Amino acid sequence: MLNEYGDKPYNNTARITAVHKQRYEIEYKGETCFAKLKTSEYYSPDKCANFPTVGDFVEIKEVPGSDHLIIGTCKRKSFFSRRDPSSAGYYDQIVAANFDYVFILMSLNMDFNIRRLERYLTASWNSNATPVVILTKADLCEEIDDLLLQVQQIAAGVDVITISSYTGYGLEELDKFMRPDVTIVFLGSSGTGKSTLVNALAKKDIMKVSEIREDDSKGRHTTSYRQMIRLDNGVCIIDTPGMRELGIWYAGEGLSETFSDIQPFLGQCKFTDCRHITEPGCAIKQAIRDGQITQERWDSYLKLQKEAKYADDYESAVREKEAFFRNIAIKNKQFSKKRH
Ligand SMILES: Nc1nc2c(ncn2[C@@H]2O[C@H](COP(=O)(O)OP(=O)(O)O)[C@@H](O)[C@H]2O)c(=O)[nH]1
Ligand SMILES: [Mg+2]
Fold this sequence. Notes:
This protein is an alpha/beta fold. Among the domains are: 75 residues, CATH 2.40.50.140; 151 residues, P-loop containing nucleotide triphosphate hydrolases (Rossmann fold, 3-Layer(aba) Sandwich). 29% of the residues lie in helices and 21% in strands. It has a six-stranded mixed beta sheet with strand order 10-9-8-11-13-12, sandwiched between helices. Strands 1-2-3-5-4 form a five-stranded mixed β-barrel. Strands 6-7 form a two-stranded antiparallel sheet. It is flat. Magnesium ion binds next to helix 4.
């Protein structure tokens, strides 16, 4: 494990399995125990604190008979982030880390929404993990083939798997992801069957399932906090309350992967500054006329791109500000050292 800057190796690592207010539940040397942050490592003004989240690997200083101390966060290979509401929007908050796959669950009955799926896919590609689309509740749907085709059209290069946790239909197709030490994040609106699928994969009831009325899909949110569970087969699962609840908003790099069908037409217009509205020789308009891209797909791309642009501007402004304050902190420290 490398430290958060990717240089110094850590060797006494644990993994965060749940985050409580001041305490972290960790998996350490095969046991579940508790730890808290070492104040001088995380709350010092000249350190750019990288607070741990569910799925993070952290460096531990053992404290016999008490909560261990977390002295550093390891470099993340993938993560989801959102704006931290408690910091008035100044810092991002990482909501899950170090997962290999994102299982995007969408139910084949009430919850089915292609435009929302595009968002989930974009956020997943952006996290640096591999998305897998899982269409749930096949037992409640009569037009599976049609819906499956719609999904395949917008999810190029992504595994799309149709399942029913009730009948067991399609579950064996998930076996190839179930390798020891693989971490999977479950993403999807409330009521899509995330907890039910976790139970089906675990072959026992480890997650609470919320009863919902299928006629209007209204259900109670039972997953209120993020947690990581290790199944008997060694697979780690991070269950989330849903992307809307998580507030993952940043589309960024993931856009080009999600909209890979649009990429070949970009930059092909007659004018390099084409706005794809009324300009002659517009490759996008032509592709839409030819039926190579749909108007809805293009609108969806523009919408997410606009959001990503806004997020980019915002992020760089925050980064500049952070660098500014970090410099001041370092200068202050050098200055006070000189005086003593
Ligand atoms: N018919 C049917 N219902 C399901 C299936 N999977 C889950 N459900 C139901 O959908 C509701 C929500 O499930 P839950 O796992 O709590 O969803 P979560 O909010 O995504 O965790 C519950 O009433 C489940 O019994 C399925 O494969 N078929
Ligand atoms: Mg749930």
